[in-house]
Amino acid sequence: MPKRDREATRARLLEAARLRFAREGYDATSVRDIAGDAGVDATLIFRYFGSKKRLFDEVTADLPAGLPDGLPDGPEEELVARMLRAVVFHDWTRYGGEHPLVAMLRSSAHDDARQRMRQEVCDTYVDALRDLAEGDGPELRAELLSAWLVGIGILRSVVATPALAGASADDLAPHVEAVASALLGRPMRGTPSSEG
């Protein structure tokens, strides 16, 4: 098989695996499912990646790490609103339409996925919110706010509850402002000034 064809096949397998793992999680995804989605024989997964676990590791190594570009920029009092827009309202088509963290929840029984998810949430979002919190117990309040934001993402995209699935960022803005201000102990805005 020419090198160009091998590279194209490998890329198709990665894309199929990314979407399949995002929609169904590690355990519910079979090598045959991925190969079928890519339109190739399952033996090619072992030839290119060695195992399903190595394929999963390569797909998850591609997940965005850290706060999205530009998210930390701007007024501190708008950080939560920017987080909500970046995480919940961003176009995550490449990951099955959901933020990669929500997609990884489906693979949370897999130790590597759980560790990666914890690192992503704690080392980025929770740390940024903790640094904004004023008063006692900033770690707990930052984790509570992070849990609320992740919960919004899950109810909106995975469960598709009617009110949240149909809500815009502007619809959520007054609630974001109220909850973020209460948990962080300082005035926060529900809409970034550049957008509202």
Automatic annotation (TrEMBL):
GO molecular function: DNA-binding transcription factor activity; transcription cis-regulatory region binding
Keywords, in A-Z order: DNA-binding
Superkingdom of the organism of origin: Bacteria
DNA-binding region: 30-49
Domain HTH tetR-type intervals: 7-67
Protein name (record): TetR/AcrR family transcriptional regulator
Organism: Nonomuraea aridisoli
